[in-house]
């Protein structure tokens, strides 16, 4: 476990600063100069964050590939087409060896580059076709291209004819990405294939993403396909009542929407009770608020941040390009507030807050809990009394939460009894298998699982290794 004395325990509410969990020191940022010499980060444009994260990569292939391409770009005139060709050359290496933050940063750089090429004609079409071929061969890059292609209106317009096969991609996050607005109403000429694909998935977070996007677009008059929206809404169940209540309450100030005729009667009845409890409070009041109210306001805030992100330009914020937090996008804000809450809540009431937040329908909030779970624990130590919270984290339905939970557990000092160590190992292994069954690459969780086994060899006593066919 790292020395807790060097680790800040809280951040100011609303202060976009995620250094509390990354152990920065005076050498941070120095590796960038090893790649680019004395080049100012502003000259790197949309690739500044990619360079920063690649410079911290433990994979020599990533570091060397990015270094070679960026130095070539720095010392000769660049153009949107040259930048796009550079992305094409880097894509296989970043997709295969980059961590999730580097892959995400690269995706946004690619999206920005696509938005600058305009109608480039045959050359751009050929380059983009090569990117699509990479996406078909690589699950990781299929997600990266989906993020880039749905960055804003211009990228969605450029790629709308090339993404017709998106529904056949196995990685669930590809479908989730294409279920977001505003690309939703531009990329898809009809909702039926998208709704069909979402209904075929067991993942609730994909359906909920599509529901919130469709309802917002419907309220703005950007969608008119009410038949398929009705099919989607009628697939919701009673357990979706809180989600629907919150989304409708969130949309109401933007554009009133009555969808009661689309919903099942039992769902409407449950929603009426939940809708009455939706209320916003000042963020500064969150530390002393009821846990249910905290969860509600974090969910509303994340919807606000998502809308802001989707309506903003894809221009990379170069002022923040050198900070690790910006690699996480809007989730950094949720992570900041969650860190503050967990770090400032009394230990006696902390478990109730954690378990309540883990009931959120928003995977971003649950991910933030996993990321900051050790904040507020005495000396970052996990004992048997924390096991209900740990086990809840490891049974989450979303791989992001599982991956972050394993990563956090690896940096904690665990003092667990033998039965709880065995149960932790069982739940961790089950989570990896469950994630694979959902269509996620096994490699999504295995590095985090390996880090846990290295940090806590006692857990490895209950994990067997097998060779797969």
What features would you highlight for this structure?
469 residues; mainly alpha; 24 helices
Description:
With 469 residues, the chain is an all-alpha fold. It contains 24 helices and two strands. Strands 1-2 form a two-stranded parallel sheet. It is globular and about 60 Å long. It starts with 29 loop residues before the first helix and ends in a 9-residue tail after the last helix. 44% of the residues are buried.
Give a quick summary of the entry.
The protein is mainly α and 469 residues long. The chain has 24 helices and 2 strands.
- Quote the average pLDDT: 81
Query: What's the helix-strand series?
Result: HHHHHHHHHHHHHHHHHHHEHHEHHH
Q: State Rg.
A: 22 Å
Oligomer: single chain
Beta-strand portion reads under 5%
Distance between the termini: 36 Å
Total of helices: 24
Q: Count the beta strands.
A: 2
Ranges where pLDDT stays below 50 over 5 or more residues in a row are 1-32, 313-325
Describe the main β-sheet briefly: 2 strands, parallel
Classify the secondary structure makeup into a structural class.
mainly alpha
Shape: globular
DSSP helix fraction: 55-70%
Strand order of the largest sheet: 1-2
């Amino acid at each position: 476990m790292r020395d807790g004395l060097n680790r800040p325990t809280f951040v100011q509410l609303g202060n976009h600063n995620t250094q509390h969990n990354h152990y920065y020191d005076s050498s941070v940022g120095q590796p960038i100069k090893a790649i680019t010499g004395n080049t100012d980060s502003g000259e790197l444009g949309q690739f500044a964050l990619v360079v920063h994260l690649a410079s911290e990569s433990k994979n020599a292939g990533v570091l060397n590939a990015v270094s070679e391409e960026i130095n070539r770009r720095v010392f000769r005139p660049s153009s949107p087409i040259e930048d796009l060709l550079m992305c094409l050359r880097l894509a296989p290496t970043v997709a295969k060896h980059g961590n999730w933050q580097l892959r995400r940063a690269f995706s946004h750089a690619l999206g920005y580059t696509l938005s600058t090429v305009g109608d480039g004609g045959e050359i751009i079409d050929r380059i983009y076709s090569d990117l699509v071929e990479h996406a078909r061969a690589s699950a990781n890059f299929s997600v990266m291209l989906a993020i880039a292609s749905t960055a804003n209106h211009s990228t969605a317009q450029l790629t709308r004819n090339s993404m017709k096969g998106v529904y056949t991609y196995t990685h669930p996050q590809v479908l989730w990405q294409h279920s977001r607005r505003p690309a939703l109403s531009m990329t898809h000429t009809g909702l039926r294939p998208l709704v069909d694909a979402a209904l075929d998935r067991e993942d609730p977070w994909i359906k909920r993403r599509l529901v919130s996007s469709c309802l917002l677009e419907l309220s703005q008059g950007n969608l008119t396909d009410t038949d398929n929206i009705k099919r989607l809404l009628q697939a919701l169940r009673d357990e979706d009542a809180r989600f629907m209540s919150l989304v409708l309450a969130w949309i109401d100030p933007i554009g009133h929407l009555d969808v009661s005729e689309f919903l099942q009667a039992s769902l409407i009845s449950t929603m009426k009770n939940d809708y009455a409890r939706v209320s916003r409070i000042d963020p500064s009041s969150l530390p002393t608020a009821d846990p249910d109210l905290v969860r509600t306001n974090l969910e509303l805030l994340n919807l606000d941040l998502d809308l802001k992100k989707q309506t903003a330009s894809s221009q990379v914020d170069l002022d923040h390009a050198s900070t690790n937090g910006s690699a996480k996008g809007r989730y950094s804000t949720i992570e900041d507030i969650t860190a503050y809450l967990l770090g400032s809540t009394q230990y006696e009431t902390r478990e109730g807050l954690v378990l309540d937040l883990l009931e959120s329908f928003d995977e971003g909030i649950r991910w933030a809990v996993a990321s900051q779970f050790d904040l507020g624990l005495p000396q970052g130590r996990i004992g048997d009394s924390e096991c209900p919270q740990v086990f809840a984290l490891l049974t989450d339905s979303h791989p992001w939460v599982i991956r972050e939970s394993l990563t956090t557990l690896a940096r904690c000092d665990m003092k667990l009894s033998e039965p709880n160590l065995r149960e932790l190992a069982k739940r961790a292994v089950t989570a990896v298998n469950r994630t694979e069954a959902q269509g996620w690459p096994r490699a999504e969780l295995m590095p985090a699982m390996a880090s846990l086994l290295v940090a806590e060899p006692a857990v490895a006593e209950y994990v067997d290794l097998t060779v797969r066919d």
